[in-house]
Amino acid sequence: VIKTKTKLYGVIGDPIDHSLSPLLHNWFFETFKIDAAYMAFRVKREQLGLCMEGMKAFGIGGLNVTSPHKESITLLVDEKSPEVSTLMAANTIKNDGEKLSAYVTDPLGFIESLGDERDRFAGASVVLFGAGGAAKSVAYALSKLSVHKLVVVNRSAGRAVALAHAARQVFGIPTVETVTMDDKLLRDALSQASIVINTTPLGMRPSENSSILNDFSSLSKRHFVYDLIYNPSITVLLSKAKAMGAVTQNGLDMLIFQGLESLRIWMGDRYEIDSESLNQLRKLLMRESGNYEHD
Ligand code: NAP
Questions:
Q1: What's the predicted TM-score (pTM) here?
Q2: Which residue owns the Cα nearest ligand 1 atom 20?
């Protein structure tokens, strides 16, 4: 029940219609018995400044920020976490009543989503598809996981080179290379790697028949293949990789854990989800996104 003291939180982006964040965060509020409500707001680029003023005026406790505002929001806050300053992107804003502070929870969300698979990363060689915002967060997380080698594969070479440069010079990954999608070197990179991560939207509904890879023969049971997409829950990449014996994971737990980290920042409390509740939450989110077959 919404009362006078109920605190408001939300997500801003454009478009925002398909966001699962309201379901996720209202589930958190109910589960952890927090007197708060969470809404989705479509905010146009030119109204972002006004939105931040409104956040202060209305006393909105916190906002998640999604495309296309993740970068521009960093210019409109009073304080930035060290990760935000490094990545120049934010997905979480906290309003403490006096100032707005920006945080980015995607890297930690990625790391926490790995569970026991985390042990695979130290010293590993990783092929990363994509060089956009999500790829940057994942590359930063990979540096924290002490991977040894990163191969960035992206459609446009300029963005791949920029991410590779940041991964080596700023994040400190020891060996970083770029290869192009049609490069024969890609096959070698895939064979030599033990981890493959897709951060592009290729394979996402409604284009669920597409995939970032066409030739899956380099994949084997030695590989861990992670797709940031969660809709569908099993992308073409994941199903083909699984058929080659690889261990696979989709992006649903990253969504959950980046959200949980936002909650921890807003409330200043270390909430944890037990495995039974996590399964319930996964089902709820999958049902909402149209993945009825997931269990
Ligand atoms: P972004 O900044 O727009 O970057 C998109 C990347 O995908 C770019 O590298 C782009 O290549 C590449 N790409 C796009 N369309 C392509 C195509 N048709 N063929 C080849 N490459 C293509 O987007 P983002 O914020 O990084 O998000 C990317 C994906 O990650 C989205 O699907 C998003 O839903 C997902 N994501 C999931 C989570 C999670 O919690 N699970 C969190 C964040 C993001 P160019 O550089 O050549 O344009």
A1: 0.96
A2: 155
